[in-house]
Amino acid sequence: MIRTRLCDLLGIDYPIIQGGMAWVSTAELVAAVSNGGGLGIIGAGHMPTDILRQEIRKTKELTDRPFGVNLMLLTPHIEELIQVSLEEHVPVVTTGAGNPSTFINKFKEIGTKVIPVVPSIALAQRMEKVGADAVIAEGTESGGHIGELTTMVLVPQVVDAVSIPVIAAGGIADGRGLAAALALGAAGVQVGTRFVCATECTVHENYKQKVLGAKDRDTTVTARSTGHPVRVLKNRLTREFEQMEKEGVPVEELESLGVGKLRLAAKEGDVDHGSVMAGQAAGLVKNIMPAAAIIKEMAADAEKTIGKLRDIITAGNPIKV
């Protein structure tokens, strides 16, 4: 079995954590991932505070294993979501779209592990200095809000720059991706798009089928002009958004176009006019499986991949391409 220091840090069996996807990673999926030996993460997004509290408590009812909450720092009522997470003593908190340094100590005081998502070396180093337990180096291949650097380029540079565990994210959906991340020096991986097609994921069936039908070039990045680029699957909404960007429509109008669109796709199943957030790894997702089976398959395939590489070195055989 593959075991890294991330497993010891978080109390999990496999170095695999599930991405905190708003409107997608609810208690059912989160508990299934944690029960399967990984770390499930509730996607708080713009969730009302009472709903987040319900999701945390429901997760606790469904699993006695560690789990986490992802806090998106751009959320208008983020302070309230932070307070709920503190009051509920969430075991792990991951953060995105901002710098969590102002509240890291509050979580550390109650024993919560804090793991920020970082798109650069500079932010990774800053997070280590303020006490982060690990960082998620997320490449531009990821679904949802993204940075500029690719996973292949970002991860090894962050690994070299910090001493805390680095979790690779972006473009990882199978065991080969896990093995590659470990080769780059990561202590584990964050997986989002693959878990959209977990049996326990409560996202609308249309959303899952949209991911299953995706090919290698079916994602696009919208909202670059707003300063908050988002990777999604192409549809009628993305074409409208891209046309408006070309026409130089004001940022406020562009942002208003996106309001409520993720929920429209994830909960109501409108994958034409809704925002279907997914990473470039969507093309690797071919079936719907229980979360525990996804984790075990990834781990087993990673071991096989590492074994093949070991055989190549031992046998002294050239790598055929």
UniProtKB/TrEMBL annotation:
The keyword rRNA-binding does not apply. It holds the Pfam family NMO. The keyword Endoplasmic reticulum does not apply. GO terms for molecular function: nitronate monooxygenase activity. Keywords: Flavoprotein, FMN, Oxidoreductase. This is Enoyl-[acyl-carrier-protein] reductase FabK. It comes from Candidatus Aquicultor secundus. The lineage of its organism: Bacteria, Bacillati, Actinomycetota, Candidatus Aquicultoria, Candidatus Aquicultorales.
